[in-house]
Amino acid sequence: MDTFIENLAIGINLPEDSITPEIKLVELPNWDSLAILTTLSMLDMEYGVTVTGTELQNCSTVEDLYKLVQERKG
User: Fold this and answer.
1) Predicted TM-score (pTM) of this structure
2) CB–CB of 25/51 below 8 Å?
3) How many CB atoms lie within 10 A of CB 25?
4) Gap between the Cα atoms of 61 and 22, Å rounded
5) What is the mean pLDDT of each run of 10 residues along the chain (74 residues)?
6) Backbone φ, ψ for residue 61 (5° rounding)
7) Within 10 A of 30 (CB to CB), how many other CB atoms are there?
8) What would the DSSP string read from start to end of 2-70?
């Protein structure tokens, strides 16, 4: 989870310590359309996982997104 948070933080230009598994994605200060696109790209490049915009919207927290990625990775 730590590496996932680190990658997410880099992608959306936030300090790593400002992101916790429990934080809601919509509450992240830089969470906008560009951050969403960057996150989708990061998931593909770093984890080889394709997530649709709808699937991302269904993830409430960082942990939800992490679990979705882990499920996709098998």
Assistant:
1) 0.93
2) no
3) 20
4) 6
5) 97 96 96 95 97 95 98 90
6) -115, 170
7) 13
8) HHHHHHHHHHTT--GGG--TTSBGGGSTT-SHHHHHHHHHHHHHHH-----HHHHHT--BHHHHHHHHH
